[in-house]
Design brief:
By secondary structure, the protein is mostly helical. 74% of the residues lie in helices and 0% in strands. The protein has helices at residues 3-16, 26-42, 44-51, 58-76. Helix 1 (3-16) crosses helix 2 and helix 2 (26-42) packs antiparallel against helix 4.
């Protein structure tokens, strides 16, 4: 099963139980997750200097993971 198929199943299950909106497209959701994840990794050194943070540190990675999760869930939820 591809990631798009897996996301489609999760979104369908969420629509059926009333948790998710009817319109999120699995490709759009995947692209958003990928973009949010890649951008942070690709720019961690530059952002680390600009914002004076250790962006690769374990606590920071967990915090950003939670932020991306929150962003995506707020997008798909009713």
């Amino acid at each position: 099963m591809s990631i798009i198929e897996a996301l489609a199943r999760v979104l369908a299950r969420g629509r059926r139980d009333g948790s998710f909106r009817a319109d999120p497209d699995p490709v759009d959701v995947h692209m958003a997750i990928s973009a949010l994840g890649f951008f942070n990794v690709a720019n961690q050194h530059t952002f680390g200097i600009i914002f004076q943070r250790a962006l690769g540190a374990a606590g920071d990675v967990a915090r950003r993971r939670a932020l991306v999760t929150d962003i995506i869930l707020r997008y798909v939820q009713r």
